Amino acid sequence: MVRNNNETGITQTLAKFASNVSYEDLSPEVVDWAKYLCLDFAGVTLNGAGTDSAKAVVKALGDIGRTGPSAIVGTNKRVLPEYAAMANGTAFHSIEMDDVNNEASLHPGVVAFPTALAMADIAPVSGKEFISAVVAGYDVIVRLGRALKPKEHYGRGFHPTGTCGAFGGAAVAARLLGLQGDYYTHALGIAGSQAAGSMEYLAQGAWTKRLHPGWAAHSGIWAALLARAGYTGPTTIFEGRDGFLSAYSGDPDPSLVLQDLGDEYLLTQTGIKPHACCRYNQGPIDCLLDIGQANDFQPMEIEEVKIGLLSQGMRLVAEPVESKRNPKSVVDMQFSMPFAAAVALSYGSASLNEYALGVPERPEVRHIMDRVECVTDPKLDAQTPKLFPAWAEVRTKDGRTMRSELTYPKGDPENPVTWDEMRTKFNLLSAPVISSQRQQEIMTAVDSLEQLEDVRQLASLLSTE
């Protein structure tokens, strides 16, 4: 229902909270998390800039002469800020190694960081302002995602990173423009008419999912700029009769938007991906790697692989089964549990090296993919949405059955990628793009992020000029 103008609704309450997030309010732990996630943004985006999908965005911008002051990460190109955010968000999301929040089943960093970096060419942004705006953006995105209920949102054909991301982009941009009160609320309201992201990319392995966070960042920046100029948006965009929650979910829980608001910044509930694929594949891959390391068998000796999968992930990575057993593109591979199982068991890895054209045709991979069965398990589902548990079983032709199960996949906040492991991930991903000296300069800048007077210093280090 639409509230009257005398009531403070969900949208206005969240806007007031996000607009007032201050660096001085953040604990050392939250600041450390922000820097940790920033280094992940740097490494994943530098590598993602080399994908065909990211290059296509840069080419399109070049074709229409959209030059400007803002750096496109991993290139020597500069464009208008909102287009840099679009390009960088797309690159960050292209290799499926970006951060993720389990409860909301979305990727908050792919919108928050590109938006904040681009905004430094619109308004003065220090390292402290950058951190506080990113923290606010994570909270907005995650709170909306969990209130939609991921299974319901997916069921309507929406990708939550794209839809919730538009609001997160607006939250970051509005925060860095210094918007307050109705101006900030209007920015969120304007973003509501730009919240999009279709799951139909799954049907043909299309690139459109990769564009979703980039477009959300672009849309968020424009929502904030329009609001600053006096353009109005609905102040009940979340809770209204035709608002975001009602329109985008069959069974939303609006109370989850404001639950525990300010008690804990949700950026600290964000996980890191060690494997180059969909989040729903990560836990099962860990189980299969454990089985492979603890037992002696060859890929062609495998008779059956059974995966315990969360039901909300089935349509993403397990159905329709014949398509998932026959990936035709890299996107298909990224969203195929049978393929993920095959490379994990064949090579003991599910890295970017395995997610490449030609790998699905290898005999050992083909052999295992045809033998993977994904099943749902009420015991797993009972632990969601906050936890993403998994199990896997492998049966060999000689009659052995091996099983592994876990509650916290590697990368979850409860089973984290350490700072040293994060630096290793950054170095591996960025090595094809920049020199070891530049790698060290970026890590140093991130380590002292709160001390930067101008975040454009970091943006310059992430370019190849």
Structure description:
The N terminus is likely disordered. Helix content is 51%, strand content 7%. The longest helix is centred in the N-terminal third of the chain and has 22 residues. It is α+β, with helices and mostly antiparallel strands and 465 residues long. Strand 1 and strand 2 form a beta hairpin. The protein is globular, with a radius of gyration of 21 Å. Helix 4 packs antiparallel against helix 5, helix 5 packs antiparallel against helix 6 and helix 18 packs across helix 19.
Would you tell me the structural class of the helices and strands?
alpha+beta
Q: Supply the number of helical segments.
A: 23
* Cα-to-Cα separation, first versus last residue: 52 Å
Biggest sheet character: 4 strands, mixed
Q: Which parts are unreliable, with pLDDT below 50 for 5 consecutive residues or more?
A: 1-6
Helix fraction by DSSP (H/I, runs of at least 4) = 40-55%
Number of beta strands: 6
- Strand order across the largest sheet: 4-3-5-6
- Morphology: globular
* Integer-rounded radius of gyration: 21 Å
Strand content: 5-15%
Q: What oligomeric state do the depicted chains represent?
A: single chain
Q: Whole-number average pLDDT?
A: 96
Secondary-structure element series:
HHHEEHHHHHHHHHHHEHHHHHEHEEHHH
